[in-house]
Amino acid sequence: MTPTTIETERLTMRPWRDADLEPFAALNADDEVMEHFPAPMTREESDALADRVRTHISENGWGLWAVEVKDTGEFIGFTGLSRPSFEAHFTPAVEVGWRLARNAWGHGYATEAARAALRYGFTVAKLDEIVSFTAATNTRSQAVMQRIGMVRNETEDFDHPRLEPGHRLSQHMLYRLTRERWFA
Q1: Which residues, 6+ apart, have CB-to-CB distance to 95 below 8 Å?
Q2: Which helix (H) or strand (E) holds 146?
Q3: For 135-156, how does the pLDDT look when each residue is reduced to its tens digit (9 = 90+)?
Q4: What are the start-end ranges of the H helices in 9-73?
Q5: pTM higher than 0.90 for the full model?
Q6: Where is each N-acetyltransferase domain found (predicted)?
Q7: How far is the C-alpha of 22 from the C-alpha of 45, rounded, in Å?
């Protein structure tokens, strides 16, 4: 499949390049960026994640796109669509997600890119629903989910199956958005 590139007002969401690996590893090693994940990533773990993401995009035409700022060409992280690889009450599903470098926070980039990913998911991929989830402590990502129109039903919150019960990050909030609601 031909990988898709998406343009927004300020961002380009595109297939990954080898040049993205170093700044991606830096953001994955940043304690503040990775605060709501079990641990920062090593360079090897970061490169392996990028390889999985690249493979998904090349096989499907969409996925977690590399995001760059149009004005500068700076790689700032990823945003896009993925399939959770664990079992939960809401899977199988397609998730909208993002991870941006700390210097890209506070500019509305996550919201802008996530809206573009939703548009792609509902209009091109013809998905009926897109979910998003994060640790209960990650209020910044929850705010993005709310800004892009996603809705949380507290009864659907869950303990992440890849974390030990009682882990500081195990409790996750689930947000949903249907195509019908998005078009409305």
Answers
A1: 81, 82, 83, 84, 130, 131, 132, 133
A2: helix 139-147
A3: 999 999 999 999 999 999 999 9
A4: 21-29, 43-60
A5: yes
A6: 11-180
A7: 12
